[in-house]
Amino acid sequence: MVADKDPRQTNRNPRTRWRPSRRLPGGRRRSFNAISLVQQAMACVLKLDFQLECMDYRRENWYHADLDYKTFSALQLARGESIFSFARDMALVSMKNLSRSGMSGNVDSWRAKLLWASKVLPMPLIGLLLIERVCAPPDTPFDKAPEVKALLDLDLSAAIKVFLAKQLATDFTEGASSLIEQSVMIGERNRAALEELKEAIRDGCKKVAIFYGGGHMPDMDRRLRKEFGLVPKKVEWQTAWSIKTKREKKDDRLSTILHTLAQISGWPLDRYQTGALMLFSVVLAVDLWFWEVLLNSLNKYSIELVVAVVHLLDQASQL
Q1: Are 201 and 156 in contact (CB under 8 A)?
Q2: What is the distance between the alpha carbons of residues 191 and 184, in angstroms, rounded to a whole number?
Q3: Which residues of the chain have pLDDT under 70?
Q4: What is the pLDDT of residue 30?
Q5: What local confidence, expressed as pLDDT, does residue 195 receive?
Q6: pLDDT value of residue 61
Q7: N vs C: which end of the chain shows fewer Cβ within 10 Å?
Q8: Contact by Cβ (8 Å): 95, 103
Q9: For the chain, what is the domain count?
Q10: How confident is the model at residue 65, as a pLDDT?
Q11: Average pLDDT of the chain to the nearest whole number
Q12: What is the 3-state secondary structure (H, E, C) of the chain?
């Protein structure tokens, strides 16, 4: 939490105030942290900056508005909650909303069922692609989707950004307010943040910003309205992601030669799309090979299990 107050005031509770260790951009921590590793990997894939390396949490007007690890673990243990159980419960709510909404009002019932199956049931990548192609709305063909165009330009980071943006813009947490409010992962952490907000207001802070993830916002909005009597005054949009293709705009000599060869041969794809086609073909082939091995193994073990059960039944009948 960031608070703007009279500079003559001192930080409250200076002895117990938590401060993170100093991190330098590009620096690495010696201790292993799985969540931090995932965050850094996502920052690398999406070509974004890592939060802990860009935000200086040690400034005097920053306050730790979160549960400490000991309290967080104790609350989760008392409620039988874990990161995985919370993710599972949220996934169940999302699937219920998904099946109820059919993902889109522009598709008929059987296409809606196909979309639901593609989101819930495990299947080969080729099956997912075919379902997406069949269920794509007429006004936005599958091959014209921005994430598909980014993949055809071999720009993985832009494709993932578009995909995540669509997921974030779709509210699948409707009906999960009770689950979120009672959870430690979001509810208790929001409660701790707003307790810190109350302290900041009592200390005379005039401008306060709570720096939290987007998943915390719906519950925090409800709490700010109910407990503080606050209402939004205005909405101001800031550009968080700049999703641009990495395709070079300038034409070098190699690009000119390849473009000329493509025109002569009548090949409809450019070099990026050709490379993407080759890459996707390899990925789909490996995926199909994996499913073939998996299904063959399951078939083999199923036959062995049936034979073993029949053998046991024969032995039992002879006793």
Answers
A1: no
A2: 10
A3: 1-35, 94-108, 116, 119-120, 136-144, 147, 151-154, 166-176, 244-277
A4: 44
A5: 92
A6: 80
A7: C
A8: no
A9: 3
A10: 85
A11: 73
A12: CEEECCCCCCCCCCCCCCCCCCCCCCCCCCCCCHHHHHHHHHHHHHCCCCHHHHCCCCCCCECCCCCCHHHHHHHHHHHCCCHHHHHHHHHHHHHHHHHHHCCCCCCCHHHHHHHHHHHHCCCCHHHHHHHHHHHCCCCCCHHHCHHHHHHHCCCHHHHHHHHHHHHHHCCCCCCCHHHHHHCHHHHHHHHHHHHHHHHHHHCCCCEEECCCCHHHHHHHHHHHHHHHCCCCCCCCCCCCCCCCCCCCCCCCHHHHHHHHHHHHHCCCCCHHHHHHHHHHHHHHHHHHHHHHHHHHHHHHHHHHHHHHHHHHHHHHHHC
| Residues 138, 275 within the same domain | no
Residues 57, 186 within the same domain:
yes
Q: What is the pLDDT of residues 5-47, one digit of tens each?
A: 554 444 445 444 444 444 444 444 444 466 677 777 777 777 7
Extract the tokens encoding 237: 């949009």
115 and 151 co-located in one domain? yes
- Do 64 and 88 belong together in one domain? no
Whether 281 is in a domain gets the answer yes
Kindly state the tokens that stand for 297: 């193994």
63 class by beta-carbon count within 10 Å (0-12 exposed, 13-18 middle, 19+ buried): buried
Q: CA-CA distances (angstroms) from residue 109 to 97, 101, 104, 137, 197?
A: 15, 10, 10, 14, 47
Residues near 315 by beta carbon (within 8 Å), at least 6 away in sequence? none
Please give the residue range of the domain that contains residue 97.
Answer: 83-169
Closest by CA position to 218, among listed 208, 234, 232, 238:
232
Nearest to 228 by CA among 206, 195, 203: 195
Q: 110 — phi, psi (to 5°)?
A: -70, -35
Q: What is the pLDDT at residue 260?
A: 64
**Between the CA atoms of 308, 314, 318 and 319, what dihedral angle is there, to the nearest 10 degrees?**
40
Answer for the pair 259, 270: CB distance below 8 angstroms, yes or no.
yes
